[in-house]
Amino acid sequence: MKTDHLSAWEQEEYILNQGTEQQSPQILRHLVECAPCRAEVAQLEHGIAIFRGAAVEWSSQCLATRPQQLQPVPLRRLPITAMRWAFAAVVPLVLLLLALLPLHLFHLSGPQITHPAVQISAAQISDDALLEQVDEQVSVAVPSSMESLTHLVSADNNSGTANAAAGSKHIVQTN
Amino acid sequence: MEALEPPIYAGELSPVRDRMIAELGDIDTLCATYRSRIYRYALLSLRDPDLAESVTQDCFLKAHRAREEFRGDCSIATWLTRIATNLIRDSTRSRKFQFWKTASNTAVEAGAVADRLRSPGISPETAMVVREQLVQVWDSVAALPGKQRSVFLLRFVEEMELPEIATAMGLHVGTVKSHLHRALAAVRKAMERKR
Predict the structure, then answer these.
(1) Which of A49, A137, A153, B61 is the 20 to 30 Å CA partner of B85?
(2) Domain map (residue ranges) of chain A
(3) CA distance B72 to B8
């Protein structure tokens, strides 16, 4: 609906085009003649002018408290993004290393860990060695009259570890 | 026979652009000339003095480092404003999660700025009215959407022409005008509400 007064859009248009050649002559003519429209436009302009004044003053006050020269950018600000990326890259690597570490340790300690079968054969070897040692001691300690019996023990020893051990024990006991 | 003019290549440097790049190379002079303007724009957009200072410094450093990319198709002020606009937008995005901080700043600052406003030669009653009007406009501008607020600040605080604003914001002149109409309507509404 067309009214005699300027619309809000026309008033805004006047304010936006101030100082330019795009200003509408009709709007200008109307403002010269119409006091209410002039007052409304002046009210809006006044609000904007107050805002501008306060903004400029606030900015000047804030700027006055700051050093005039360009400050070196703090190191912590620039590399933040880079550090985030580095962190994001390092974390999976660390987690991967942590996951692989037990496996690595297992491989390192692998030769020291023996299976039960290996333990048994080692025990058998050590038993045999022990029996041989005992046989030697016995053979040294056995009197010459009983030397023939030691041959028997040696023969038994060759046939079986258990019999040899029993034989040796028997010989030691008889001594 | 007409003399042939030397061909003009797209990448050819013009003397004006050379002069502008030389100006951008002198960072101290650049800061002395444009610092208050860029800082004011950043401060009013972000409403945080420390962040505004940071954005201002980043703006000059970025302009200095990227001076060879300056095409010379606008003024240095407009180019700096464009860089500042991008930095402000990035800061605003990263601050979105700090909504409590933004809210408290906005609530306090309108009154604080109005209190600090010098009003020499006017009566206390008039000063009170002016203070109320300022708070209304300040709050309404703070409540504007980002682009409308930036366009409003560039037009009415920095007093830039519409084509300059369009270049600085990367918008069409018609879009800038549309944003300005909406911003002015919001300010007018805020002022009428309290009247």
Answers:
(1) A49
(2) 8-64, 115-174
(3) 16
Verify whether the Cβ–Cβ distance A55 to B40 is below 8 Å.
Answer: yes
Judge whether B137 is closer than 8 Å to chain A, CB to CB. Answer: yes
pLDDT digits (tens, 9 = 90+) for A69-113: 665 554 445 556 677 788 888 888 999 899 888 888 877 776 555
Assess: ipTM above 0.85. Answer: no
Residue A51 pLDDT level (bands cut at 50, 70, 90): very high
Alpha carbons B110 and B123: distance in angstroms, whole number: 21
State the pLDDT at residue B4. Answer: 47
**Residue that is written with structure tokens 């020291």 in the block:** A112
Concatenate the DSSP letters of all residues of A100-135 into one string: HHHHHHHHHTGGG---HHHHHHHHHHHHHHHHHHHH
Decide if B105 is inside a domain.
no
Predicted confidence (pLDDT) per residue in A9-43, tens digit: 999 999 998 877 778 888 999 999 999 999 999 99
Give the predicted TM-score (pTM) of the model.
0.64
| Range of the structural domain that residue B17 is part of | 12-97
- Mutation target vs A (from B133, B149, B164, B179; most A CBs, 10 A cutoff): B133
How many CB pairs below 8 Å do chains A and B form together?
92
| CB within 8 Å of chain B, chain A residues 141-170 | none
Position of tokens 């040796």? A168
Query: Residue B74's domain is classified under what CATH number?
Result: 1.10.1740.10
Length of chain B as a residue count: 195
Burial of B193 by CB count in 10 Å (0-12 exposed, 13-18 middle, 19+ buried)? exposed
